[in-house]
Amino acid sequence: MLVSGLVLILSFGLFLVAAYQYVQMESMQHLKSEMTCISEGIRLNGAAYFEQLRTKDRITWIEADGTVLYDSAPEQASTDDLLEREEFRQALEEGSGSSTRQAESFPQYYLYYAQRQPDGTVLRVSCAQDSMVSVMIILSSPLLGIFILVLVLCTFFAYRLARQIVLPINQIDLDYPNVDATYRELTPLVSKIQQQNRTIAQQMDELSRKRREFAAITEGMTEGFLLLDPHTNILSGNRSALALLEQTSGQQIENLRRDGCVPEIRDTVELAIAGKRSEFILEIEDRSWQMIANPVVAHGQVHGVVVLVMDVTEREQRDQLRREFSANVSHELKTPLTSISGFAELIKEGLVPPDMMQEFAGDIYRESQRLMDLVNDILRLSQLDEQGAMPSAASVDLYALSQSVLDRLASVAEENEVTLHLTGETQTVWGVEPILDEMIYNLCENAIKYNQRPGSVEVLLRRTGDEVVLTVRDTGIGIPTKDQPRVFERFFRVDKSHSKAVGGTGLGLSIVKHGAQYHNARVELNSRLGEGTEITLFFPAESKKS
Questions:
Q1: H or E stretch including 35?
Q2: Which whole-number Å values give the CA distances from 159 to 3, 152, 153, 154, 155, in the listed order?
Q3: Which positions of the chain have pLDDT values less than 50?
Q4: Among 192, 305, 477, 513, whose Cα sits 20 to 30 Å from the Cα of 434?
Q5: Please, which residues bridge with residue 56 across strands?
Q6: Which of 364, 362, 319 is nearest to 340 (CA)?
Q7: Rounded CA gap, 177 and 192, in Å?
């Protein structure tokens, strides 16, 4: 359509120029023919010829000095000297002349032709002629119709041609393009599509492989993983992290700002979006989760956030136990040291009578022994915790070892009105005898200390399958159900006032627990308040510790 329009406009311009030149040439030829007739008439009839002349053209006859002999349109006569006109001047000099001048009423033009007569006068004939604009206006109507007709035809044929060209393109199967199904000019396009399809297929295979690898890695992680965009939309995340978010908010989270995420998590992510690494500990029920948010920066701008969620419950519990242990050790060490320091200060200041000196020395000795027992128990626990150097393991007869322990505790039991019983038969295990001795001693000592008067303690040895079972049962005060999970903690005491009365370091059952772990044994506790306590150790029979 554009080409047709341009061709029509160019053709119209060329036609207009040719038509105007043709009209001008015909007009000049008309003036020359008329000049011939008028000249012959003047030659034959003189000035009387003009009386019978009838014409629309203007005729002017002047002398060689410019005197007007005749003018068919005197009202149009100019005050200017006619000899100054181009056509008169040429006629006088060359015999004939012509010119074209614009009329006062644009776009009208006049064509002039002058010829010198045999008598020396000059005869001029002129006629009106339309300008180029007039010709264009006259020809515009039919040309405009032709232009519209051509445009309509071009539109119709262009539409049909475009459909024919585009139809094979639209019918190309982008997944499986076929060169033979299209015309020849589309072969480069189809070949390019085929090449792109192969490239895309390779890239998709590589992407799928990487996504499977990424999913396998992240889904197998116990830690949580989240990838967020700058608007806190979750782009990717493994099962652990998504489950944790759902647990904290009670709903599925897709955007941390919009979906009611807990403020701590949202604030941590917002800091990362601002370009700062941040982390905090989130407490959920009895678990501790450490969340670390790192910004993803490229070209100086934050394009996302990577969040790593780690279960640090054990670490936090260890830190808590360490703090409690430090506080308890400080307290337990301070008590006997304070007593020893107080007694020693009284003796130093001479405030103790001579008859009480032995009693004070006995108090200092007892507190020193208590301090030594505490230090020894702490060292023993440290050895068990760190799996430090131990005496070599050997086959140990638990029945004989238990009898030895009960013999050493006989005097203590007698003071507390407690009877001791050992039942069962010889059972041997593979272990470290000093540790086993201390475990049984602590169990029996606690059974005596926390017993009733009168009371009893029974040590029972038996074998069940591949396990040697040692049970220490008493008729003591028992342990409340709520405190039973904590009795194996270091320095934990159910009744602190009663514990002070009976003495002890508060580490006995902790040593039993860690000793059991050292020997791959397990411990079970069964106790009822006011009825007694039963603690059972299950040892692998003759199992060598690796």
A1: helix 2-45
A2: 15, 11, 10, 8, 6
A3: 496-503, 543-546
A4: 477
A5: none
A6: 364
A7: 10
